[in-house]
């Protein structure tokens, strides 16, 4: 994948394991520049970058680099020129193994100061081992080191923010994702919500590392984040270090934090192996900010490495306060979002038809992955492109209350048969948007030779309106669907013409009563698209309790309400197993669950089912 | 209808009986309790008085020392008192016990009563029983229309309640439900359902389209213009919770051969887009949906479908508010049949592993082949020293699916481990 490789390596250049950050940075800039111009020389730079990445020792000057594979005279000359300029700007004795320490631009943290000394690098590599080894691999070889997130990294910000939350009297002791991101953003250089160009990782990615390191625990659904005991201790130290130190002596912070670590001069190159790529991503993003030191690079055009997009994102996100977000009339536009499934789906060229129709109608629409529903509308903030940047800043997006599920009669028939019909409605009802619309394409007479009788299908449609409270829209064919979506888009645009929209977080505020939702008055307190779509992920984070419920339901006759009743008493496999262990006799174990009452009628679960569950969990040998 | 009513009065009388049954029970129990406490108080009072009395009596007894065996007499007196006290205490204890037993019994009876009542309400919520409480209300204007007989005929043949009501929206069909209220469902309250169907002919609908179109394009204030639009508007203004569906039918059936091949809405002789705009306006601003139907037979089918849906709704709403955070319907939830001897459990175990996100049947069966019961897996975990080893136990197991062979990943291995051993039910596994 030549398209993504440079990007991936672009992140690699930021690995703390490279002792020549300046050269790496310059080469990366050169490569990106060449790539933007479509020059083949980008591949030469790429090869040089690869070589440099593998070289564990600091280089004194550009000539020395010639010993490396893929470093020719040309590259060395360019590097030498850059180096000379660098010395002119930073003084002849400036360290080239660290980015300039003297004049860090205000508001930016130059992590490289922290990263550059070889001791720290090794530590970072070690952390890489810890993260990737899954325990067994490196246990014997190295003394394990404590994981400490880089200052102003995602992990650092999350730990500190959670710590601050614990210090607030009467705090709830955990934080929701949106809340945590909003609060932590100002402590982190990288955006929690928008990935860097070409990367799919945000500062948020480091949370999984924190969970893996047993510093943070994630519970409930929607997810709640809180510190473990270990996390609390570490965060406490981070917080006290944060307080006692100013910009000047971060080094001291770092060394204080690393006081327990011994010096290990061996550079472990395997620490940055490809297979650990992902884990590294989670950890090292602060280093990705390396190129933001603009004093060194004056290439304003070089968007990719100048780091400016990140900066604008960061400032943008930090300037936003949660709950105080609003979109004023005229600053946003209404846009239709189409689930990508509606546009692909090989055999159905019908689906292409819909998009073509929408295009023909001149609808403002965007194709994206929707985790629930087929169509919806967002109010998207209009953002003007900023001079000197290729990519326009990301506009905020709030989801309108309308969501459309499209069904052809044959789809409807199929989904009733395989149970998706109910499941989809269930998810639509819980997605947080208050006005679900069922768009039924009736396909004329086609309905007559489906595997369910016409009356059953009609009943299902009417039920959707009467029982589920959806709006049911009936159309004849795809073209009518497109016409409907077109006109809906126009009307919604009109409806929201003069309205101020307020961003509401579902996690923090719940679903809220739709108090303003009188006829014709649209709701103006809306979820962000990101929160909406994240919340609608189909198989998102399962809790132990949920899995246990589903597991119990795998026994025939153990219905949802029975599982829920068992969960009332034993909410994890562990608690049930412990209860079995505490029984005095096998007979007692057999009957453990039989008198649990379930359902609205509070019936007994009964001895037969109790016995089956007992057999499942207590059979010492193999099951049959 | 009369039959139904009779049935209901019988039900009411039954519930009255049961009420009467419980009330005396409750009352008698209370009286027993109060009586016993009274006695208790009295008892303690008595004994105190006796003690006081004996103390008061003592000095004269002591002064008269010449009397024979006053000590014996006094002792016996004390003994008697002691005995009396003991008897009293025993009696009290017995009474207390009896009261406790009675209370227990009463509690049990109440619990049973509660359950019986819960069962009864649940039963009354069943669709077939709900259906008996629903009345289809038809505006008389509709009965004058040709072909509308089929509606009444159908309702009669289904034995559903209906009534002709001129006070509702002209040309509409609505529903009411008798809700049993109060103790034992003695009083029933008639409640209007929010669903309202308005049967319009093509010409009537055109009238609506023209009125609405005027609103859309002139951006004028909503005014009730048009003989059909203004009543709808008034109706909705009166009660904003109503959900109106317009059933547009061809009131003068076209007997020409191609009548059914042309969808009704195209017969309007109007720009289709104009109509679509009106439909979207009705949806967004008035929550009105429009259904085009060919005949009174289809109107009747629709009425029946709505009636059935209304009858199903209470039960569905009740069961829907489940405690589980996922939809309990679907093929995954059907479960594996387990015989009495436990055969089938191995499939259950395998499907249990599959309930974790992103675990394929192949991976699940790799786990359950190596560890064919939860206990065997737990034993394997227990034999391992470190947490890390336990997390990684299943990683690397070979999982064959079709022709390809893959290995169980460390992430899935760790999730299976945590799921089986975690203490915190709310721990997120992914």
Question: How would you describe this protein?
Answer:
The complex is a heterodimer of chains A (624) and B (430). In chain A, 44% of the residues lie in helices and 10% in strands. Chain A is built from 26 helices and 14 strands. Chain A has helices spanning 5-12, 21-36, 41-54, 73-90, 111-115, 118-132, 154-167, 177-184, 206-212, 229-244, 250-257, 277-288, 303-306, 308-319, 349-360, 409-418, 420-429, 454-466, 478-495, 506-509, 529-535, 544-552, 560-569, 573-582, 586-590, 607-618; strands at 175-176, 216-219, 224-227, 326-327, 332-339, 365-368, 375-381, 397-408, 435-441, 471-475, 501-503, 525-526, 597-598, 603-604. Chain B has 14 helices and 8 strands. Chain B has helices at residues 2-63, 70-125, 127-133, 140-143, 149-158, 202-218, 229-238, 272-286, 296-320, 345-354, 361-370, 374-383, 387-391, 410-421, and strands at residues 134-138, 161-164, 172-181, 187-201, 243-249, 289-293, 398-401, 404-407. In chain B, the strands form 2 sheets. In chain B, strands 2-1-3-4-5-6 form a 6-stranded mixed sheet. In chain B, α5 packs across α9 (296-320). Chain B is flat, with a radius of gyration of 39 Å. The model of chain B is unreliable at 1-39, 46-65 and 254-261 (pLDDT under 50). The chains are: A alpha/beta (624), B alpha/beta (430). At the A-B interface, β2, α17, α18, β10 and α19 of A face α2, α8, β6, α9 and α10 of B.
Radius of gyration of chain B: 39 Å
**Strand order, sheet with most strands of chain A:** 6-5-7-8-9-10
- Strand arrangement within the widest β-sheet of chain B reads 2-1-3-4-5-6
Tell me the total number of β-strands of chain B: 8
Helix/strand class of chain B: alpha/beta
Gross geometry of chain B: flat
Share of β-strand residues of chain A: 5-15%
Count of DSSP-assigned helices of chain A? 26
Secondary-structure element sequence of chain B?
Answer: HHHEHHEEEHHEHEHHHHHEEH
Radius of gyration of chain A: 29 Å
Detail the poorly predicted runs of chain A: 1-15, 100-142, 246-323, 514-519
The tally of helices of chain B reads: 14
Fraction of residues in helix of chain B: 55-70%
What structural category do the secondary elements of chain A indicate? alpha/beta
The description of the largest β-sheet of chain A is: 6 strands, mixed
Look at the structure and give the mean pLDDT of chain B: 79
Considering residues with a beta carbon less than 8 A from a beta carbon on another chain, report the largest interface and each chain's count: A-B, 89 and 97 residues
| Low-pLDDT ranges of chain B | 1-39, 46-65, 254-261
Rounded average pLDDT of chain A:
75
How helical, in percent, are the residues of chain A? 40-55%
Quantity of strands of chain A, as a count: 14
